[in-house]
Specification:
The protein has 596 residues and is of the alpha+beta class. It contains 13 helices and 24 strands. Strands 2, 15, 16, 17, 18, 19, 20, 21, 22, 23 and 24 form an eleven-stranded antiparallel β-sheet that branches. A seven-stranded antiparallel β-sheet has the order 1-7-8-9-14-11-12. The two termini are 49 Å apart.
């Protein structure tokens, strides 16, 4: 299947032509790639570059490059992949261990810091890179490296061990490698890691054991908590284990945890994480817009988890989750040229951030996208998601094809084929044309998003309303037949749950899958904006216009007591898609708008 046009095709083009090279430039510049060469030499060196998890960033970019090479074959890219793989192989120890910050010439013994060392975490990303490379190019040196590393993990952390990594990731990677190779012990080891979690075997931490997802066993937890990315990665691994072992109880437990998290601990954009100090989930309904963390990596992990739950349960509402996160976190995070990005994704920027000429921004709380951060896990994570995006769009089963996301793509299973063309989300018309049909009845299933009340389906010149959920069309299809799904894209007000105290008395505006925002490059003080909800928002291109007033503060020596403001005259205020904010320069921005 291939994405051939539209918003995401352009994102993939930029990813392949700009982002991958940009990330490699920084990794080379900072010495992260040469760490493997130094480790292979065996020379004693205390000059290793980067954090203890920097190996994983190199593995992630190799995974992204592998998916990109499969999407758009490139000899130069392939050569660079092979060169990096050779350095991995050279740095690997005889017993399969591979990490450039521990062992060999380093002064830190292996697995001496399971809480923070990230050794198993990095191994997980190595395995995922190998899976991607093998699925695209066939078996080769990277798969050999990965199998030796996985064998080492099974030998050290098998049934007689109690060890777990402070950052989950190895769990889902072992299952992916088991699927590729058919090696049962990789799946067994992943299941061991999942069941060991939550027994407080890691050292106590100032943020609590929940930071490591080590406070409550996976099967007994009721909600995701602690460090958001850690929790989401662990949930991905648990779903993978459940699916491959037929463990329905484990699957139901994780699905219930995610459902509760989505309903109570998730920002309107689909972003997850309310606390900056520990990059963590807050308590239920603690979702302050101006302190939203919503790390980009958490967005990537949410897409990974939602898609796994979709495949495991068949419930298309998880495709709605993927759509919201893709359009409002992933699309927001990356710059137009693919060379800068957000680490965190605030919902309210009060003070416009200024550009940092040095390019190495250390703050992650909002403002301008940056070329690099001290911790730059998000850019290679974005790169691997965007490069592999086609795997999230449509699925095939014994009954036919299920369309989960809408952009321009062609899909051909050999027996059936479809061409999908749309300008979505700029407009709501999705045209589906049958390009191949074997003659027997088969199904085309279309997702109608949960917000799309009033959608219309057109088939054989017959129009009929369809409700949010799924439309399953089963018949003997003929090549050339067309289906059109018309999704209502008029902008709409969205009110928060009254238990979200931080945004009580506010509204947001959405248009289709897009969250809109008010943005100011200095012409208006958005903190004094008050929206009138008596009149519906009016469509304005891919944004909207709302009627609003700006408060005019009165001078006061004390900001409390009797009202100290008055409302100005009504004015129209233009709202733009959130994913476009901060692309014209430093600005203020808010999604949740106080009402008059």
């Amino acid at each position: 299947m291939r994405v051939v046009g539209g918003f995401w095709a352009e994102r993939q083009r930029v990813n392949g032509e700009e982002t991958l090279g940009h990330a490699l430039h920084w990794m080379d510049r900072l010495g992260w790639t040469t760490n493997f060469t130094v480790a292979a030499s065996g020379a004693e060196s205390r000059e290793r570059k980067g954090r203890e998890f920097s190996d994983s960033e190199v593995y992630k970019i190799v995974e992204a490059m592998s998916w990109e090479h499969g999407r758009s074959p490139n000899d130069g890219l392939n050569t660079r992949i092979d060169a990096l793989i050779a350095t991995f192989a050279a740095a690997q120890a005889d017993d399969g261990y591979l990490h450039t910050a521990f062992g060999r010439a380093r002064q830190r013994p292996r697995y001496s810091d399971l809480a923070w060392g990230h050794e198993l975490y990095c191994t997980g990303h190595l395995l995922q890179a190998a899976v991607a490379r093998t699925r695209v190019a066939g078996e080769g040196q990277l798969l050999e490296v990965a199998r030796r590393a996985a064998d080492h993990v099974c030998a050290v952390f098998g049934p007689d061990s109690t060890g777990v990594c402070g950052h989950p990731e190895i769990e889902t990677a072992l299952v992916e490698l088991a699927r590729l190779t058919g090696e049962q012990r990789y799946l067994d080891q992943a299941a061991l890691f999942v069941d060991r979690r939550g027994h407080r075997t890691l050292p106590a931490h100032e943020f609590g054991w929940s930071y490591f997802s080590d406070d409550v066993p996976v099967r007994k937890a009721t909600v995701l908590r602690g460090h958001a990315v850690r929790a989401l990665y662990l949930a991905c691994g648990a779903v993978d284990v459940a699916v491959e072992t037929g463990d329905d109880d484990l699957l139901e437990a994780v699905a219930a945890q995610f459902d509760r998290t989505w309903a109570r601990r998730t920002h309107l954009t689909g972003g997850m994480g309310s606390r900056h100090q520990d990059e963590a989930f807050g308590e239920d309904f603690v979702l302050p817009a101006d302190r939203a963390y919503a790390e980009t990596c958490a967005g990537v992990a949410t897409v990974m988890l939602a898609h796994r739950l979709l495949l495991a349960t068949g419930d298309n509402r998880y495709a709605d989750v993927t759509e919201r996160v893709l359009h409002n976190v992933i699309a927001t995070a990356i710059g137009d040229d693919g060379r800068d990005f957000f680490y965190a994704n605030t919902l309210h920027q009060r003070i416009p951030a200024q550009a940092n000429g040095g390019g190495e921004r250390l703050d992650v709380g909002g403002g301008l996208r940056a070329p690099w951060f001290e911790v730059s896990c998000c850019l290679p994570n974005l790169a691997r998601l965007v490069a592999s995006l086609s795997s999230y769009l449509v699925t095939a089963d014994d009954t036919g094809l299920r369309l989960h996301q809408y952009t321009d793509y062609d899909v051909d299973t050999g027996l059936t084929g479809l061409q999908v063309r749309t300008s979505y989300p700029d407009d709501g018309n999705v045209a589906v044309r049958v390009t191949r049909s074997g003659g027997n009845p088969w199904s085309i299933t279309l997702r109608v998003p949960d917000w799309a009340t009033g959608a219309v389906l057109v088939l054989d010149d017959e129009r009929r309303p369809v409700a949010p959920g799924e439309v399953v069309l089963t018949q003997e299809w003929a090549a050339g037949q067309e289906i059109t799904l018309e999704l209502p894209m008029r902008p709409r007000f969205t009110w928060p749950d009254p238990r979200i105290d931080a945004v009580r008395g506010c509204v947001a505006v959405e248009r289709g899958p897009l969250v809109l925002c008010a943005e100011s490059l200095g012409e208006n003080d958005l903190d004094t904006l008050r929206v009138c909800t008596a009149d519906d928002p009016v469509e304005d291109g891919d944004g909207a216009v709302v009627h609003a007033r700006f408060e005019e503060p009165l001078e006061s020596s004390w900001p409390y007591g009797a009202p100290t403001t008055r409302l100005g005259a009504p004015v129209p205020v233009h709202l733009t898609p959130y994913h476009r904010w901060a692309r014209r320069g430093p600005s203020t921005m808010r999604i949740w708008l106080p009402t008059t």
